[in-house]
């Protein structure tokens, strides 16, 4: 008796993709059969860790990038700037790298070494942010002014709950400050 299910696919029959971005949004689903045999409904588990960046934030990063490009907020020289923990930053970096756009992440102090290495591997400029300073301080990890050291760019911020808050480009003024009036 074989330990493999009868429908086990031959790896040589795998699909071939032209871009890593083609994989985003095709997260595998697995039907739970044994654990839910007494449940009167089909139960599925979405395997987000199989996404290219390891989370569901790949789709968000690609969506933000597509919207910004369609709205004319990004061009071939605009830098993507994100102040985040890693998953959205990684999703934006993946999409940005494929689109040929430079990215900067103002990294929170507790960014995992694995995410940091992935971001750097994708060519992202990583600027360490801090939590031990006032939120208005330009070195604060989550503040809008943290983008000061990143030059002019398309700043992506997230509100509580991980929702996108602002996507407009914020030009750098003569002092290096970032803001809508700069």
Would you summarize the structure shown here?
With 182 residues, this protein is an alpha/beta fold. Helices cover 20% and strands 16% of the residues.
Task: Please explain how this structure is put together.
This protein is α/β, with parallel strands linked by helices. It has two domains: 40 residues, no CATH class; 114 residues, Rossmann fold, CATH 3.40.50. 20% of the residues lie in helices and 16% in strands. It is built from three helices and eight strands. Strands 3, 4, 5, 6, 7 and 8 form a six-stranded mixed β-sheet that branches. The longest helix is centred in the middle third of the chain and has 14 residues. The chain is globular. It starts with 28 loop residues before the first strand and ends in a 12-residue tail after the last strand.
Helix percent band: 10-25%
How many distinct beta strands? 8
Counted up, domains total: 2
Strand content: 15-25%
Please state the average pLDDT score.
75
Instruction: Look up the CATH topology of the largest domain.
Output: Rossmann fold
Distance between the termini: 71 Å
> Can you tell me the CATH architecture of the largest domain?
3-Layer(aba) Sandwich
What does the main sheet amount to?
Answer: 6 strands, mixed
Computed over alpha carbons, the radius of gyration is: 20 Å
Give the low-confidence spans: 159-182
Provide the succession of SSEs: EEHEHEHEEEE
User: How many separate helices?
Assistant: 3
Structural class: alpha/beta
- The best one-word shape is globular
Please write the CATH class name of the largest domain. Answer: Alpha Beta
């Amino acid at each position: 008796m074989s330990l493999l299910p009868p429908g086990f696919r031959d790896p040589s029959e795998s699909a071939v993709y032209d871009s890593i971005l083609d994989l985003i949004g095709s997260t595998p689903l697995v039907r739970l059969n044994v654990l839910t045999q007494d449940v009167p409904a089909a139960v599925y588990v979405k395997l987000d860790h199989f996404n290219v960046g390891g989370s569901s934030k790949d789709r968000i990063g690609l969506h933000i990038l597509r919207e910004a490009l369609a709205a004319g907020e990004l061009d071939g020289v605009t830098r993507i700037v994100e102040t985040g923990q890693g998953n959205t930053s990684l999703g934006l970096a993946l999409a940005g790298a494929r689109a040929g756009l430079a990215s900067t992440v103002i990294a929170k102090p507790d960014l995992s070494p694995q995410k940091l290495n992935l971001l750097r591997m994708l060519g992202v400029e990583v600027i360490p942010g801090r939590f031990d300073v006032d939120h208005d301080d330009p070195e604060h990890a989550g503040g809008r002014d943290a983008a000061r050291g990143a030059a002019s760019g398309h700043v992506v911020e997230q509100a509580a709950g991980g929702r996108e808050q602002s996507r407009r480009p914020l030009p750098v003024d003569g002092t290096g400050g970032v803001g809508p009036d700069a």
